[in-house]
Amino acid sequence: MAIPGQKELTHMEEFMEGIWKQNPVFVMVLGMCPVMAVTVSAVNALSMGLATAFVLTCSTLLVSLIRNLVPKEVRIATYIVIIATFVTVTDYLIQAISLTLYDALGAFIQLIVVNCMILGRAEAHASKNPPLRTVISSLGMGLGFTIGLFALGSVREILGAGKLFGVPLFGPDFQPWVVMVLPPGGFFVLGSWLLLFNWLKGRKVEGSLVKTAEGHSHA
Amino acid sequence: MNTPAPVLTSSKAMILTLGLVATLCGILIVSAYQGTLSAVNANKRIRLERAVFKVIPGAATMKEFVATPSGIEPAGANVAADAVKFYVAYDKAGALKGIAAEAGSTGYSSVVRVMYAYDPAKQAITGIGVISMNETPGIGDRILTDKAFLDNFKDLDVSLAPDMKALAHEVKTVKHGTKQHPWEIDAISGATVTSKAVGRGINSSTQRLLPLLVPNIKKLRGE
Q1: Is the pLDDT of residue A2 over 50?
Q2: What is the pTM of this model?
């Protein structure tokens, strides 16, 4: 995005944007529907994250390739058709990989098409940037989304079922905290993660403020 | 700022763009479908076999059959609307090992689909396995693990009435701890809705299948 006065990001910075500064789950809080629904276990969360990342990367690449050909009046319709295509492709691929996984993710594979993060990235980034930069940014975003889902999924599986990746972590006497794998648990865990991230961010801002203040007083 | 007058795009360009993009996407989808079709079908086949072999231990091969009012036949491409599908499992020597069929009913938050094994000699259900369900974790999903509940299906009576038209006794799910007859299922305390769904599914499936199947059971043995 060529905003005047802002220097262009390097490719590395572009990649890191999605993972940290603009993490779709923890910073932008985008696409919360699958975040809440499928993060009952680490495996589900990881596969959902990777599926979304795949759709995101493929569709933004195509959007970026045809960005100069699409009239602006029909751009959203074009993007949706492209996204829906890759969602369908992903749907078939997951069925071919594992039906158990397909059943566990249920309707949320098809619902990737309405993940606002993907349309948002196609419109805000891919339609204005060359293919390489788009792919790098989408990989970062996709990875950031996957990390976000995994952060929720692993915590919910550990607390709600006493397992991680299906492997029991505690003894047989462990009483699972069932609410954590139910919908309210999703909100509890997401809330806690957001709290943690904002607290970390707040501390960083405070720290830099103190530093600048010190710098000024010394000067 | 002097904004230039908006340039109107011609309808032709818009139609052309959308048409081209849609065509490209169509080709992508069709090739993905064709490319994964054999793998998806193989997966479905494996899942079905696993479900059948789980409820009929010792089975080595299985065949799909349909039962219709006119008899039983191997499942073909065109299946009649009133046909009931079932699976026949054979052991390594090729002898009839057992019969399995699917049952489904709506539970608390999803359709609970189970595979049950039917033993023609005992006229009883000898085991069940859940194919798919999405019941509340920790509550309804205990039908997968609750040993006392699964014991209900080790020898569940589904013998036919003398007229061969229906079961002698309907399969029924009863409140936890009140099971008295071999055709009753003792519900899981706290997960009654899901337990009842299993019972209801098995009842309606056996009511449909067994009157068609039992008179023809000799045919299966002979093959």
Answers
A1: no
A2: 0.77
